[in-house]
Protein: Type II secretion system protein GspF domain-containing protein
Amino acid sequence: MTGIAIACGMVAGLGLILIIRGTSRPQLRLADAMAALDRRQPAQVETDTRPAGLEGLGHRLHRGIGLPLTQTQQRLLNLQGRTVGDFFVEKLVWTLAGLLLPTLWALTQLLFGRQPGLAPFGLALLGGLAGYFIADLRLRNGAEQHRRAAIDGIHTFFDLVVLERLANASAAQATANAASISDAPLFRRISSGLERARMEQSQPWDELRRIADEWNVAELSDFADVMQLEEQGAGLAEVLQARVRELRDAHLNRQREAAQEASESMSLWMTLPALLLGVALLTPALLTLLGTG
Structure:
């Protein structure tokens, strides 16, 4: 009877998934088109494409069923060069793994003639819930490393712009040439923003400020301010070099502080073996004194 109940539950769950899949058709939203026109939330608009395969399935999970995606998660996905569909496919895989592993264990017990009871169902629910949030934890754990890589890349981008300016390139041309050097996610985003500004025949510096807010890279906003002043005829080539040097020095100081904090946190674990050795050496003498007393 337990096996029949499990099979019926799986069939009912599959039917529920098919019903949701059939009724949750993606709807066209006028807000997306208006956002594309006035360049609001460019990252979200760019990820609204519908790729095929597994990424398309993940995209339908997000837009069709309505699974949430926060602005912080969107920013982290941008930093890692991942799409929304890839993120929700990972969520689906971990959720199904958490659901199916206890179920497979229960089916194995049934094949051997044992009664698994109701414990596998509770474990399946807990496993599915935990699996849904594993992708969030993995995304957040890798955020700091990708952010450091993005900041290192943006400082390299500043150096490339300075070299282009020393080669008598205009401010906009130097920025576009430097952004086209690398295929990193941040460089691609800068290149697409500059190309959009060029097609619209507008200044690229507002677009760089939007990218700085979108990716949470304040250094890019400072760079846009200096480049805008220089393009207006202020002759700030030396100021640009000095500002780039200041930004790099500030970044190096933050890296040194982080390394110092990591070293200090490791010092406690380095002293524990010495403390245990001292206790081991003193224990026989203390026991002897207590015994003779």
Summary: Residues 168-247 form one domain. The longest helix spans residues 237-292.
